[in-house]
Hints:
- The structure is a homodimer.
- Chain A is built from 6 helices and 11 strands.
- By secondary structure, chain A is α/β, with parallel strands linked by helices.
- Chain A is globular, with a radius of gyration of 17 Å.
- The interface between A and B is medium-sized, with 29 and 29 residues.
Amino acid sequence: MSKVTCQISISLDGFAAGPNQSLENPLGEGGMRLHDWVFATASWRRQHGGQGGTDGVDSEVLDEMVQGVGAYIMGRKMFGGGSGPWDEEWKGWWGDDPPFHTPVFVLTHHPRRALSMLGGTTFTFVNDGMASALTQARAAAGDQDVAIAGGASTISQCLAAGALDELYLHIVPVILGAGERLLEGVGDPVLEPIKIAGSPAVTHIKYRIAKRS
Amino acid sequence: MSKVTCQISISLDGFAAGPNQSLENPLGEGGMRLHDWVFATASWRRQHGGQGGTDGVDSEVLDEMVQGVGAYIMGRKMFGGGSGPWDEEWKGWWGDDPPFHTPVFVLTHHPRRALSMLGGTTFTFVNDGMASALTQARAAAGDQDVAIAGGASTISQCLAAGALDELYLHIVPVILGAGERLLEGVGDPVLEPIKIAGSPAVTHIKYRIAKRS
């Protein structure tokens, strides 16, 4: 059955980004340390048209992430291009052929026409909130999953709303000490770890989120 | 070689105790949820003179915890009995035969004579700080390990001081939302996950802490 999932890297002290995030440094100070494990994998390099990298648990987890995803939802900050009315030149961080290859629904307060990119990725800009984005993404995904691509605040919002079925955390063994927390203001969801895996670089824990009756 | 270790249960959002800790409720609101997995195990029941409980990963982890420990260090709040000068009637939470069966060094600002309990547990009260407690505990432990028993602030202090060799976290799939954080103000230690295990109730991750050169 179609699920709403998400996966995100966090520090051991719970931050999804470091302090002082900016347009130039969207992950904040030290935030890139949360993603070093990704760039080392063979899976990431394949997905981005490269070669080499390391096989193994982390690479398998990354492969798993993109399987069965029929649509993505992301916050505006993750799509990038700054705040306020759109600069139509900005088409995301990912170049002409983004690595999504499905419909992507971007939450924004500012209207913009949809974009069709190479490789099957489309960006649709949603002005009427998370519930509407979920409805549109579910319809686009059919019997495949809807993945919340990020950033942290979009995932938190979705978790708080009880809309997430699975949360896949990649817990990176670093202490950032400050930054943007993932699990703040999300209420008291019923979580059950259903998969654990890891390497010296990162520990993966997949949680199923029960629906409260 | 003798190590300084510790193990502690934390919520997925990083709290080792819930909010509003008090003498009556030392784990704070909801804090007992972090320990439900312990009481369910066969290992815990055996260690506390009981029977029954569940075998399996969590029980094995608890068995592992007490192996090779030659001495413990704990903070005064964990030993209990309130703050200020000692009420000599208070001999800890654990009755006449505490589950440590080794020397235990209790950090306190208030002098008190050592206590010998049944089963080989002794409580020695250390007035001159963590470094002194570590020296005494290492001497008592010989070639066995020194375990920091808790609470969270004692573990944080030890981690911040670079005195910990291993940190074994039991990550419980609950969101407490508030309380006492374990990994705040501990600097930027170099951590490497060296073991992961788990059940639907809890995920265990053991980190080795590298010495900074």
